[in-house]
Structure formats: structure tokens, C-alpha cells
Amino acid sequence: MNRKRNKRRSERSEWRLPQIDFKGIGSVLVLAAGLAIVGYAFSVALDRPVAHVAVEGPFQRVSLPEVEAAIAPFVTSGFVSIDLDGVRAAIERIAWVDRVRVERSWPDGLHVVVTEQVAAARWGAEGLLNTRGELFVASTRHPPPELPRLAGPAGTEREVARLYLDTYPRLLGVGMRLTRVTLDPRGAWELELANGIAVRLGRQNVEERLERFLDVASPLVATRQGDIAYIDMRYSNGFSVGWTSQVASAGGRKKSPRPDA
Asked: Taking the CB of residue 7, how many other CB atoms lie within 10 A of it?
């Protein structure tokens, strides 16, 4: 019994803590510090003043002096330390600028590529929407007259643009061109065709009413478009026609039932 205890004590007494090579760790730390110092010195050596800036873009709506003015406050920094994100953000604040790519150009230059906005529609009286349905110009003096006109409450730009994009090819398929989409503050939709006829879709069942217009009302519009002022689709099973003043005075308009919302 005593021998077993002595043997157990002997085994325990032979256990040792692992030895740590502090000398080796010190060498690694010194090496890392040395590399950091060398890297810093190398970056300082490369951080020479920006000597030239190359700017690319179509520049149909954006002027080159505007871009140069946006870049100017940043080029006082060095080639390495220049704030590329700051340069990009400053250029993107210019009207008609959509996207910007900014890169360093070895050994002391800057390469900037500017992509302009593409106006896809007018918004309200003076605004412009891009191809993503985003309002990128709130007020312009000379909006392109050939663009479709969209309107609605603030914040509904994409919703109105989506209805326009979905509806335009469907109307074109029955020989009609959509030129205006309006969403009023109550949430009621109205379309306007190139021939001046308004199509009232209202607030409810808009898709169903549009389908009914395409299937049932569009043949009447095609044959008597010169006599029609508007088509009101806000009825459960049909539609009403608003005739022009000449037709109304000649034949007398029948009073239609009250439309739905």
C-alpha cells in the first residue's frame, strides 16, 4: 500500500509546466514592429501629391468644370491618403450625375468615370425621373417635351413609374400610345392617351378595370377617338363615355349611373 502511494506521489512530482520561449516571441514582435515601420515608411514615400486627374464621361448634361470643382478640395491630399469615397460623394451631388467610379492611377494620378442620368419621364410640372423611377431633378426649366408625363404625391414616383412601364406596351398592342399617368392624393388613377382621351381607372380594382378597357372599350376609342373626351372605367360591369362638346350638343349625352371609387 505504501509503495503505491509513493509511486503516485513520484508520478505527480515529475509533471512540469510547458516552457515558453519568451526570447522567440520577442523576436517575432520585433520583426512585426520592423515590418510595420517599413510599411509605414513605404506608404509615406508613395503618398506623393496627386499630379494629374483623368475624367471620363459623356458630359451632355454634366459640365466638366463642375466635376473639376468637386474634385479640387480632395487633390491636396497625397496619392495614398486621398479620400476616394469623399471624391465620389462630392461628384454624385452634381445634378444629372448618376454613378461615379474613382480609382487611383499609378503612380500619382486619379481616374474618374462619370455616368450621367437618363431621363425617362417628367414628374409633375418640372421634375425628371430616371429609368429606375427615381426623382433626380426636382425642378428643370426645359424638360424634354417628348417624355411621358407622370404625377402623384411625393414618395409615389416609383409606383407611378411602374404602372406606366407595365401599361405602355399593353396599350401599344391595341394601337394606343400612353402619354400621361396621374395618381391623385385620394389614390385614384387616370391615364391619358396620345389622342387626348383620358381613361379614368379610380382607386379600386385598377388592374381589372385596365383589362376591361383593353378588351371592351378600346375598340370604341379606335373608331370614334375624335368624338371622345374620356372613358370612365369606374363601374362594376361596364364603362361610361364622356363625349366632346360637339357630340354632346348634337346628340345629347345620356346620364350615366354613379361610378364606383
From this structure: 10
pTM: 0.72
Give residue 46's pLDDT: 64
Tally of structural domains, the chain: 2
Strand runs (DSSP E) across the chain, as ranges?
Answer: 52-56, 97-105, 109-116, 121-123, 127-129, 135-137, 149-151, 178-183, 189-193, 198-202, 228-232, 240-243
How many CB atoms are located within 10 Å of the residue 73 CB? 12
Q: Which of 118, 120, 117, 90 is nearest to 102 (CA)?
A: 90
Question: Residue 75's domain is classified under what CATH number?
Answer: 3.10.20.310
Question: Model confidence over 196-205: pLDDT tens digits?
Answer: 999 999 999 9
Q: What's the pLDDT score for residue 14?
A: 46
Range of the domain at 110: 52-116
Residues 132-181: pLDDT tens digits?
999 999 998 888 889 999 999 999 999 999 999 999 999 999 999 999 99
pLDDT above 90 for 231: yes
Q: How many Å apart are CA 113 and CA 101, to the nearest integer?
A: 5
C-alpha 11 chain-centroid distance: 74
Question: Does residue 157 belong to any structural domain of this protein?
Answer: yes
Contacts of 238 (CB under 8 A, 6+ apart): 216
- Does residue 85 sit within a domain? yes
Tell me if 91 sits within 8 A of 75, measured CB to CB: no
